[in-house]
Amino acid sequence: MDSTGLRVALFSGNYNYVRDGANQALNRFVGYLLKQGASVRVYSPTTDTPAFDPAGDLVSTPSFPVPGRKEYRVPYRMSAQVRRDLKAFAPNIVHLSSPDPLGHRALSWARARNLPTVASVHTRFETYPRYYGLAFLEPLIESILRRFYRRCDAIVAPSESMAQLLRNQRMNYDVGIWTRGIDREIFNPGRRDMAWRQSLGIGDDAPVIGFIGRLVMEKGLDVFSDTIDQLTARQVQHKVLVVGEGPAREWFQNRLPNAVFTGFQKGQDLGRAVAGMDMLFNPSVTETFGNVTLEAMACGLPTVAARATGSESLVTEGVTGRLIRPGAISAFANALQAYCIDADARHAAGAAAQARAEHNGWDQVNQALVDTYLRVIRQRAQGLAPKSSPVP
Q1: Element of type H or E holding 300
Q2: Which residue ranges does the record assign to the Glycosyltransferase subfamily 4-like N-terminal domain (predicted)?
């Protein structure tokens, strides 16, 4: 079999109703599959106001809003309509992109029909409770995740550091890599526009510390703010540029009253905003990859990031940026201060980062996942069931 014989049922907790790096990667992948002649059916919650048009055929699933985070929805069951649609579509592989209730039901549905399943890991769900005072729940969530991922034929992670973490957590015996690509037409140093920076009140000589991403607390907004406070107390010249939108925007603006907030940006505007920065500060520990880090690197920026999964696979310590112990405010401030006051070091790290980003093209990384699909289908055809815990 080649890719033209693939019939993929993809289950997602958020395919297009809120824009994020994970679902944009999924949509790009579905577009790639369709160009290769594969058939794809996507099952996900939908809303009346999606963030963008979906790639491929999208079937709406029953869902309810997340308490306290109403912009997100939880798909809680596989309805009769979805089951009929699945039966008519007759997939030969099931892709699970979220370990939510629908993902669990879809996994059981596939196992009952001896269909191979691949799960992609997009975020570290087990780390989320610590940002809401519920860190004691992490072992329980990790156990639930382990049961889910062990029932799959294979799982894929977006970085080697995340893949190794999944192996250490004993999530599955077959852990591969589906990394992320970069659109070099959008993200490159040539997008830098000093007139645009000036229109935001940013002087040409001001080193710009950037934040890119959804404005939610689990992105490390508290660590970011505390670090900027230290730079200000040290009287280090800098300007903060925040690109993104989210429910924590008001909190973030109150914490950083002198920062420039552009709101959500996309396409060429996003490329211009990223290239308009001088360094990226990414203190989050929840990402499995860090699309924003790769985008910044492609624009020739050094990154100061938490030493965590995702960032460790992108940032080379002391070469393309700095990796700092998570939550170490003073160490973060020291690294940012060094780049703010030493333009030569900043430019050298940025050039090295741009060279590193050249290795990530979308077609190459998406083909790696297609190859994983074909392998697990071939293994199932040969009677090779996945090694997993004995759960039905």
Answers
A1: none
A2: 20-185
CA–CA gap between residue 99 and residue 93 (Å, rounded)? 17
Whether residue 183 is predicted with pLDDT greater than 90 in this model: the reply is: no
**90 touches 113 (CB < 8 A):** no
Cα separation, 291 vs 314, whole angstroms: 10
297, 353 contact by CB (below 8 A): yes
In the chain, the amino acid numbered 54 is: P
Same fold, 3-181+361-381 and 189-357: yes
Identify the CA nearest to 237 among candidates 212, 189, 204, 197: 204
Reported pTM: 0.69
pLDDT of residue 389: 45
Split at pLDDT 50, 70, 90, the class of 55 is: very high
Q: Which CATH class is domain 3-181+361-381?
A: alpha beta
DSSP 317: B
The identity of residue 365, as a single letter, is V
Give the mean pLDDT of 99-115.
95
CA Rg, the chain, in Å? 21
Q: For residue 232, what are the contacts with CB-CB under 8 A and spacing of at least 6?
A: none
From first CA to last CA, the distance across the chain in angstroms is 28
Q: Which CATH superfamily is domain 189-357 in?
A: Glycogen Phosphorylase B; (3.40.50.2000)
Element containing residue 199 per DSSP (H, E): helix 194-199
